[in-house]
Design goal:
By secondary structure, the protein is α+β, with helices and mostly antiparallel strands. The protein is built from 6 helices and 5 strands. The chain has helices spanning 20-25, 28-34, 90-94, 111-122, 125-141, 143-146, and strands spanning 39-47, 53-62, 68-78, 85-88, 106-108.
Length: 149
């Protein structure tokens, strides 16, 4: 009788799935390398007050500019069930990817979807303009070379 009962579990379970936090943290080294260490990324994780959710804040940090910190986006998800994870923040809203953040938050229901959306956000014109503006400020002050010493 046991042989006639099929396996009802999903066939495509990915045992190497990673969290939004791990994906965000993996973006630190590429930006540091691309900007020769002038810009960095920090991911700050904390529980949301009075809820079962956690928030990951992704900030770009310009150390040569007195550690100027600019929040790029926030990712919010349930502490136990990390997907769906929703994206929040000025740069997310600025992309026009979200019509009404109150009723239709930009969210990812899987690791694959999360990486796709994060790539669209980080690769956007708004983020490129921010990175270039920070690098210009560093270069104009002559701090690009001073920070290497």
């Amino acid at each position: 009788m046991m042989d006639s009962i099929p396996n009802l579990w999903p066939k495509d379970i990915n045992v190497k799935i990673v969290s939004p936090r791990a994906i965000l943290r993996a973006q630190v080294a590429p930006l540091e390398k691309s900007t020769q260490g002038l810009l960095s990324v920090e991911v700050i994780t904390r529980p949301l007050d009075a809820s079962d959710e956690v928030i990951h804040e992704l900030d770009i940090v310009a150390r040569p500019l007195s550690n100027l910190r600019i929040g790029i986006l926030n990712v919010v998800h349930n502490k136990k069930n990390v997907y769906p994870a929703r994206f929040e923040g000025f740069y997310v809203d600025d992309l026009g990817m979200v019509k009404d953040p109150e009723t239709e938050p930009l969210s990812a229901s899987s690791e694959t979807e999360f990486m796709k959306l994060l790539g669209e956000i980080l690769g956007s014109r708004s983020i490129r303009a921010l990175i270039e503006s920070l690098l210009i400020q560093i270069n104009d002050t002559g701090l690009a070379f001073a920070s290497k010493s």
